[in-house]
Amino acid sequence: MAATIISVREVRQLASALFLRMEKAGVDQIAIDQPNYWKVFPDDLFRATSPHPVVASVDDDLKDLRRDDAARSTDSWWHSLAHLSGLITAMAAVDIGAAVELPAKVSGTERIIS
Question: Is residue 30 helix, strand or coil?
Fold first, then answer.
């Protein structure tokens, strides 16, 4: 099976176009009342067995993405991409009116993305 190639430039252009359409429609902020949500940790995405969901937080996503941006690191992108993905997924959930019964931040056997 040939690898799927993802163009960073194309994804950036598509994301920019989407955000511009949202802004033109009057959406410049999205309120998220419950910041915690379920997410599959990046290293579980392509496992042959069932992944283990983790509890993530929109607040942590935004904080960490801002910190990563300020650091301007070019060593690795996974951390920033994971948090950006969380923010975009939460925005999508609000747009479709997803249930507000989201996970509480827990500790123990579940990993917390931060």
Answer: coil
